[in-house]
Amino acid sequence: xxxxxxxxxxxxxxxxxxxxxxxxxxxxxxxxxxxxxxxxxxxxxxxxxxxxxxxxxxxxxxxxxxxxxxxxxxxxxxxxxxxxxxxxxxxxxxxxxxxxxxxxxxxxxxxxxxxxxxxxxxxxxxxxxxxxxxxxxxxxxxxxxxx
Length: 147
Ligand code: DAT
Ligand code: MG
Prior knowledge:
Elements: E1 14-19, H1 27-36, E2 40-47, H2 51-57, H3 67-74, E3 79-85, H4 89-97, H5 110-114, E4 123-125, H6 129-141
Antiparallel strand pairs: 1-3, 1-4, 2-3
The structure holds 2'-deoxyadenosine-5'-diphosphate (DAT) and magnesium ion (MG).
């Protein structure tokens, strides 16, 4: 049965990840970590991010002093954008990523292994089921202007 768009889907097990420019050279190891932790890729694309989509994706950070640095980093090379599926995918990916500041991340996490600091932290992951849905729509379903 088709669900109403505002239904809470308690079985939601999808999340959105972005392998950031510094993570790209480790993409095979990062994908291995997804599969070893029960996260499977269901959509995948490699794309050069634009100002427009970054201003939407990081709208909560636009007024921060570090935004220009974040924007330049995210636009410095193409990134891999994926939908991951698995049990508790959002929480599982966030645990596997480690905290925002890679210098504080456990060495077994993606940020601990491949990140450098609070800016160059290798990977993005949605922070809630609600935001996962919004981000999947943003990167995979919304009509995007091609560059
Ligand atoms: P996360 O990526 O862990 O969800 P966030 O959503 O708070 O963290 O911020 C998005 C990105 O912005 C983060 O991956 C790196 C950058 N960022 C956040 N806080 C920062 C800070 N204090 N200094 C520099 N960059 C920061
Ligand atoms: Mg975030």
